[in-house]
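Hi again,

Forgot to attach this to my earlier email, sorry! This is the prediction with magnesium ion bound. I've pasted everything inline since the attachment limit keeps bouncing my files.
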Amino acid sequence: MSKQYEMVIGLEVHVELATKTKIFCGCSTAFGGEPNTHTCPVCTGMPGSLPVLNKQVLEYAIAVGLATNCEITRNCKFDRKNYFYPDNPQNYQISQLYLPICRNGHVDIETENGIKSVRIHEIHMEEDAGKLIHDDWYDASLVDYNRSGVPLIEIVSEPDMRSAEEVIAYLETLRNTIQYLGASDCKLNEGSMRADVNLSVREVGSETFGTRTEMKNLNSFHSIMHAIKGESERQIDLLESGESVIQETRRWDDTKECSYAMRSKEDAQDYRYFPDPDLVPISVSDELIESILAKQPEMRLEKKKRYKEEFDIPEYDINIITNSKHLADLFEETVSLGAQPKKVSNWIMGETLKLLKEKEMDPEDISFSASHLADLIKMTDAKEINSTVAKEVFEKIFFEDVDPKAYVEEKGLKTENNEDLLLEVAKRVIEANPQSVTDYKSGKEKAIGFLVGQSMRELKGKADPVAVTEMLKKLMS
Ligand code: ADP
Ligand code: MG
Ligand code: ZN
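Structure tokens for the complex follow:
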């Protein structure tokens, strides 16, 4: 009988904080921009320049720590992590090793066996590196320091996860917690949230951990799931054939669906950490913690509870809507503008999710305004437009945030409510289609569908199909 294995997984998650300026200088953190335009002597590591901590970074880090049940380190400091690589202009990264800002927390995740607590070892603050662009044409590597000095927090979990599903649940919980706090948009595909997966396998029942590898370059939940599956199988195969797993950093190749060794794992001592002498130690006051606690928003679990009490919408909808701060805000704002909750939820769960999926967009990318959705719902309720037109207008709102009132007016999409016109069209259609009329009168209910379709066509789709059906029935009775 073959042996039973289980996986042991711990994550190191980097999150780019949503500050306007970098961690130690006043340069912009905006994504993109011409290379090396968001730079200054500090973030390009010029000799003699001095870093100054951006207070907002500290506040976001503490907010995330409090929301993940961490202890806040009252006296903390920064350390230099020394390594030589061209994306790192100082030849060291300013990070925290000895006294990270948050420690000993936990995140509760929902699994198929109920709530499980994943412990957080620490959260530390650090700066991001620049970006290397390898240009084959010129046979050269170019560097862009716009990202250098963008603030990051690194959230290090204990090796508490046992399956890919638990990893995804943990990441989703972290992501929506941080999004709710407004501390980051946490987009995996743009790199504002990046997860390194540490994975080992062991025989079920074993008390000790196996040797782990660390996988980098995972930029979607899809690739994380696949990487975990691929790497656990690779490790089990090694053990089964009597070989051993080597502790190393591996790179996941999403297209080839396999990982390959990048470098052997380095230890803390390889980085020759030492306290950064250019930055003063940080002392976190009670007042600071209290002011951050006072600003903590309603988190997802509380929101879910409140939605259940306040709105008559299915639990399934509540789960999806509250999983994204942006969707939840959109929902609440639209409802506050007078639209019926169930209808708002239908537009979100239906057309919105459909278009997001089609365009491979994240809910955080939605840019239309709640007031336009509210107006659309009101226009449908008032039967000013029919449901087919409403869907067409919604697409315009979704992509271009058009004002539905103006758009419907301009394109002449208003429902034709003119009774005389409906009567005239219905009469004409009945006259032109005697066979359908006979069929209908002889009991073939379905035959009316054809007559409705013909009438709608004559009315250029702008009538209320219910009203048209009634008119036809009246004439044929
Ligand atoms: P290092 O300092 O070498 O990076 P850490 O102890 O900080 O190592 O652990 C890094 C990550 O690896 C943590 O998220 C931790 O939970 C995880 N980890 C540690 N040991 C194992 C193991 N045997 N199997 C899986 N994950 C592990
Ligand atoms: Mg580590
Ligand atoms: Zn700068």
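The mean pLDDT is 93. Residues 12 surround magnesium ion (ligand 2) (CB under 6 Å).

That should be everything now.

G.
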